[in-house]
Write a structure and sequence with these properties.
CATH topology of the domain at 105-158 and 283-416 in chain A: MetI-like fold
Largest sheet of chain A: 4 strands, antiparallel
Helix content of chain A: 55-70%
Order of helices and strands of chain B: HHHHHHHHHHHHHHH
Order of helices and strands of chain A: HHHHHHEEEEHHEEEEHHHHHH
Shape of chain A: globular
Distance between the termini of chain A: 43 Å
Largest sheet of chain B: none
CATH superfamily of the domain at 105-158 and 283-416 in chain A: MetI-like
Number of domains of chain B: 2
Oligomer: heterodimer
Number of strands of chain A: 8
Shape of chain B: flat
Strand content of chain A: 5-15%
CATH class of the domain at 105-158 and 283-416 in chain A: Mainly Alpha
Largest interface: A-B, 74 and 71 residues
Strand content of chain B: under 5%
CATH architecture of the domain at 105-158 and 283-416 in chain A: Orthogonal Bundle
Structural class of chain B: mainly alpha
CATH architecture of the largest domain in chain B: Orthogonal Bundle
Chain lengths: ~425, ~375
């Protein structure tokens, strides 16, 4: 016992964590209690440590608040969120929401969020497709395919994203020809210094039926899936779900389109004297950010996918083979479900990384949240603390939402696990 | 021999030898044309290589303008990369605005760093402890005196003049050395049973990990001066260092926590039953095992940090990337259609070499320290 108490004297670190339980068990006997100096009791010491840390923390915060208040008064600056309802008076080059110079800061905040979400959403979809393709290609038995995938991954993920953004923006898209000498792309699209111009779909009111048909088709696919799984479990009969789903998803809206006679016109961009008129303009800032984020994140997703597939032991493949499953079934029923369990958690954190990395758009002038709010709005209002706090709050919300969804998913998956 | 139907009485004839199991042709057949699908993929792969490699080769080497070239050659219609531009601006890319007459000082710092750091990386070199103390305690002080000057008759050199690769290396080396211990402390705090300490660490780690580095740097650059007492001026480099270190330490904490969780509870209990106190248990038993488990994660964090140094332009530092960008935009005497591309290509190669060697070294270290944890 003496040794334990002596050893416990080493327990002087602030983080007396794991020792606590153990030593409490040893010291709990009434005969030893009087012998120990009170500070050697881990419970008391834990409390003392925490009080000390709390006092230091609180005084640090008070000190910072005092300094900030003094600094702000010295600079004649006011604080508060009242500026959110004042007219912003600056232009934003690319918005989804309506925006004029008369709009207020609160709207600028929303414009920033939607622009961030737009590039993040498209980027996530594209990076997932590219990343899965390359991750699987890296495992290919074909030497050329796997080498190309390896070269891609090892090159892209060892170069800073900001550098890649600069490359796409300054070295590729900025060196595109002037508007008058635009390159023509397929489908009546054009590319020039001001970005890519694509035709804008102009659906007439009748087109609503097609959307409804699409929704019905999606519902039908879910119903079909439910029915097929039940039939498989009760009778063991199988059904080509994927093929049928694709047919339903394409055919139903197509038939409705033809029957209703809805007209889908396209507004084609036309070159006028100085610029294109009509169509949709995708500015180079947006394109550069999208390319950069997609290509960069895809290299990380590829590694995640490769790791996930390799985590499924080879015995599983052999077991499936010995059960007589065909290659497609083997992948679909045995390998992929197990690999997905390993892949999904890091995949979500890659999605979150992509969303956070979209803030680098500020460096090439894409008006996303950081650029609009921690950049322009902050400079105009001088409310540094408020602007940065609101910006951080948005990312914090994204992150908390994602981890909430992940916890739910993990709970669901671990139910399946034995 | 009795006449049992199912017993073969004579040997079956030998199978013909497999026609190719080794040699280049067999390799080609197995790795390139195993199935019809493979053959198609191989053909497409070849076509892709043919499409991409010759132009790339021509740009980087074939039609490139060498170090001794002139800007007129770079402006030629079919010219490739303009390496002459890189060669002529190299000093700016490495030292930033550091006075040219004083550039021997960063050179000594680089040389000393290599001299002290390389032996640390090679396992066979002795005197690791002395070496580490020299590198972690003496070297930073010497480097600071050499770079900043103002004493011993050295010309004073404010940090605003530092730049280029020098800044990139300073921030990443300082960031790595400081964020590692800080991350371990945070990870241990997160594992603690004391609620105040645990909450504090969890809140710090989760808050930092939730927001992009760019906002942390904004905060360091705009809000940090507000937090300090009136009249304190904070050096820009210091702001960048604070931001980068805090950011990386949160990620480091999560990696280390993964390692701590991988250690079986019996190890903690065994340590305690030997009579070791908390810090002894951690230092001698838990951390050595935990850190070994997470070497790949730690190095990945170092690589991220190295790449993230490119963001310090937010606080107004001219790191390697920002130095290249500045010259791309402002060096009018080198203006040509390939200047920007060449500049970024150069920066990419420098970053790539550092990051790739770090990842290779981590694989080497992982293999060396692998003492039977893998099944």
């Amino acid at each position: 016992m003496l040794v334990a108490v002596k050893g416990d004297a080493w327990n002087s670190s602030v983080f007396g964590g794991l020792g606590t339980n153990h030593m409490t068990a040893l010291d709990s006997g009434p005969s030893t209690a009087p012998k120990t100096f009170f500070f050697n009791d881990p419970v008391i010491r834990g409390i003392v440590c925490q009080i000390v840390v709390a006092i230091i923390l609180v005084s640090f915060i008070v000190w910072i608040i005092g300094n900030t208040a003094a600094n702000l008064t010295a600079q004649n600056k006011t604080t508060g969120f009242d500026f959110l309802w004042k007219t912003a008076g600056f232009d934003i080059s690319f918005t989804l929401l309506p925006w004029t110079r008369a709009s207020i800061y609160w709207q600028a905040f929303l414009v920033g969020i939607t622009n961030t979400l737009l590039v993040a959403f498209i980027g996530i979809v594209a990076a997932t497709v590219l990343g899965f393709t390359i991750g699987i290609a890296r495992l290919s038995s074909n030497f050329i395919v796997s080498s190309l995938a390896t070269i891609y991954v090892e090159t892209i993920r060892n170069i800073p994203l900001l550098l890649q953004l600069f490359f796409w923006y300054f070295a590729v898209l900025n060196t595109m020809p002037a508007v008058r000498e635009s390159y023509e792309l397929p489908l009546d699209s054009f590319i020039n210094q001001r970005g890519i111009f694509v035709p804008k779909p102009m659906p007439d009111p009748q087109f609503a039926f097609v959307w409804i048909a699409l929704l019905v088709a999606i519902a039908a696919v879910f119903g079909l899936r439910y029915w097929v799984i039940r039939r498989l479990e009760t009778t063991g009969k199988r059904f080509p779900v994927f093929l049928t789903s694709v047919v339903v998803l394409v055919l139903l809206p197509a038939i409705v389109w033809l029957v209703s006679g809805a007209d889908l016109a396209f507004e084609i961009p036309v070159l006028e004297r100085f610029s294109f008129k009509g169509g949709v303009q995708l500015p180079p800032e947006f394109l550069a950010l999208l390319f950069g984020l997609t290509i960069y994140t895809a290299s990380f997703i590829a590694e995640t996918v490769r790791g996930g597939i390799q985590a499924v032991s080879h015995g599983q493949t052999e077991a499936a083979q010995s059960l007589g499953l065909k290659e497609g079934d083997r992948l679909q029923l045995v390998i992929v479900p197990q690999a997905m369990r390993v892949i999904v958690p890091p995949l979500t954190s890659q999605y979150l990384n992509l969303t956070k990395n979209s803030s680098l758009g500020a460096a090439i002038g894409y008006p996303e949240l950081v650029n609009v709010f921690s950049g322009t709005a902050l400079n105009q209002t001088g409310r540094a603390i408020e602007c940065i706090a609101l910006t951080m709050l948005v990312y914090l919300t994204f992150s908390l939402l994602t981890s909430a969804i992940m916890n739910w998913y993990n709970a669901r998956v671990s139910l399946v696990e034995r | 021999m009795t006449n049992i139907g199912f017993v073969r009485s004579e040997l079956i004839p030998a199978k013909p030898a497999p026609n190719r199991i080794s040699g280049p042709m067999a390799w080609v057949q197995k790795n390139l044309f195993a199935t019809p699908m493979d053959a198609v993929l191989t053909v497409f792969g070849m076509l892709f290589l043919l499409w991409i490699v010759p132009p790339l080769f021509n740009f980087v080497i074939g039609q490139a303008v060498g170090p001794s070239g002139t800007v007129e050659e770079c402006r030629a219609v079919d010219a490739g990369a303009c390496w002459a531009y890189i060669y002529n601006e190299m000093k700016f890319f490495i030292y930033g605005f550091f006075d040219i007459a004083e550039q021997w000082r960063p050179n000594i710092v680089f040389a000393l760093g290599a001299l002290l750091f390389v032996p640390l990386l090679i396992p066979k070199v002795p005197f690791k402890r002395v070496n580490a103390i020299l590198f972690l305690l003496v070297y930073p002080a010497v480097s600071y005196i050499l770079l900043a000057g103002g004493v011993f008759g050295l010309l004073e050199m404010p940090t605003q003049k530092w730049g280029g690769l020098l800044i990139t290396l300073i921030i990443s080396v300082v960031g790595i050395t400081l964020s590692f211990p800080l991350g371990i402390v945070l990870a241990l705090g997160r594992q603690s049973t004391l609620p105040v300490i645990k909450t504090l660490c969890v809140a710090f780690i989760e808050l930092i990990r939730a927001v992009p580095l760019i906002t942390i740097l904004f905060m360091a650059s705009i809000m940090l001066p507000l937090f300090m007492p009136q009249g304190t001026t904070m050096d820009k480099l210091l702001r960048a260092l604070v931001g980068v270190t805090l950011f990386t330490s949160a990620y480091m904490a999560e990696v280390v926590r993964g390692g701590l969780q991988a250690i079986p509870r019996g190890q903690y209990e065994a340590g305690a039953s030997l009579g070791l106190g908390y810090s002894q248990r951690m230092y001698f038993i838990i951390l050595p095992q935990a850190l070994k488990h997470v070497i790949p994660g730690i190095v990945n964090n170092f690589i991220s940090l190295f790449k993230d140094t490119s963001l310090v332009y937010i606080v107004g530092m001219k790191d390697l990337l920002e130095a290249v960008k500045t010259k791309n935009d402002s060096a009018l005497e080198w203006q040509s259609s390939n200047t920007a591309t060449t500049g970024y290509l150069f920066a990419a190669m420098v970053f790539w070499i550092f990051c790739f060697s770090m990842s290779r070294y981590s694989i080497f270290m992982e293999r060396r320290l692998n003492t039977g944890h893998k099944r």
